[in-house]
Amino acid sequence: MRTGRLMMVGDITRRLGVSTTRAKQLMARPNFPEPFDELPVGRIWLAADVEAWISEHRPTLAEEPES
């Protein structure tokens, strides 16, 4: 099982700087990472998967790798 930092819809919304509606549109795309799990409070994603997607599809928002 992979582990790491997790993100919820609100985290992804803030990270992308978009509305919740827009974030949900992006999450519905076939190229967006699959959720890691679904909890009673909502879906969660591995942050590493979301960051990889951002690097590929929104490179201007990509985080600089830590040295």
* Radius of gyration based on Cα positions: 12 Å
Strand order of the largest sheet: 1-3-2
The major β-sheet equals:
3 strands, antiparallel
The average pLDDT value, as a whole number, equals 91
Give the strand content. 15-25%
Regions with little confidence, pLDDT below 50 for 5+ residues? none
Helix/strand/pairing category: alpha+beta
- Share of helical residues: 40-55%
Order of helices and strands: EHHEEH
Report what the structure shows.
The model has no long low-confidence stretch (mean pLDDT 91). By secondary structure, the chain is of the alpha+beta class. It has 3 helices and 3 strands. 40% of the residues lie in helices and 16% in strands. A hairpin with a 2-residue loop joins strand 2 (37-39) and strand 3. Helix 1 (9-16) packs across helix 2.
Primary descriptors:
67 residues, alpha+beta, three-stranded antiparallel β-sheet, globular
Concise synopsis of the structure shown:
The chain has 67 residues and is an alpha+beta fold.
Outline the secondary-structure elements:
Layout: E1 6-8, H1 9-16, H2 20-27, E2 37-39, E3 42-46, H3 47-57
Antiparallel strand pairs: 1-3, 2-3
Helix pairs in contact: 1-2
